[in-house]
Write a structure and sequence with these properties.
The chain has 388 residues and is mainly alpha-helical. It is built from 18 helices and no strands.
Amino acid sequence: MSGGARRASLLAAVLLIAFNLRPAVSSIAPLLETIRTELWLSHAAASLLTSLPLLCMGVFPFLAAPVADRLGLARGLLWSVLLIAAATAVRILAGHAAILFTTALLVGIGIAVAQTMVPGIVKRHFSARSASVMSLYSMCMTLGAGVAAGVTAPLRDAFGAWPAALAFWAAPALLAALAWLPFAGGRAGDGRSASGGGFPWRSGTAWLITAYSAGAFGLFWSAHTWLVPLYEEQGWSAARAGLVVAGMVATQVVVQLVLAAVADLWRDRRPLMIAGLVVAAAGLGAAAFMPLAAPFLWSFVLGLGIGCIFPLALNLPIDHSADPAAASRLTAMALGGGYLLAALLPVAVGWLRGWTGDFVTPFALLAVLSLLMIVPVIPLRPRVVVVP
């Protein structure tokens, strides 16, 4: 296989892995009420089926460094994808609550480790086009989440059982592992960094990247969690309100595809990040103060802003690291700290909604947060390398 063909195959395998980093989580939501009823779960317990993997995304990225040191980035990525596939397949037995919760934990660990290792792979093989590759990577994650959310309920009807519908998503995950297998022969220890083996806790730049990542992830999950309830309170049906979110997601996919074509034309990507934050703030502010004036326009504006800031957050560790292993360690810090902090934001929106009686204040504060995120962006000059 020629060098160009091998790189194309490697990119296809990375994107297939990206597609499979969300279905095991997003496939739960359409069946959540059915699962809760059949397994006699409380609402709080049922919510853990989606929140537990998200919590894992904040806790377990730090596990990726010792895994990479022992197995190497390529083999570590393979085993994490296989863990996702195996845990998802076991859901065929998910008529027992203990099995379902165990698979949620294992899926979360696999996703956390896999998405921490991918930037190191991109740093090694696509350093000159990293922003483009990470935009495609983000687009494929968004597609995977959307397809699983839309197809799982029809799969339940076709199979006649919800455990089979959940277990179905093991098939594309196994396909992703098989696609990555030819590239998983990297030597053990290729995860060690020439610039040092620790996490960059003392680096101010690393903390700026973590702060920006936390805000980007928090805005993403807050919009996805609360936009439907906002419009339901305006008298819309759940199905109609869901179209607003669908419009936002579709716009994100298009924006990420455009970014894949143009992001690497900017050596300094701060203008793109700042533009995305300003546009996201405009969409959030419009949804807060005049939600019914042009709801589908607001969903487009939100998708435009979030679709820009999210993939660029994933690319920051690549831009500011010296080598692939350092990129994975910086990604672990940004994803770990970022997801742990971001998990609080949708909860805060819900608490403010209960306290104020409407969504005006929480969405207005999300708009303010989007503008405040410009502060950590400004010092992130291009090619400033984080040193542990």
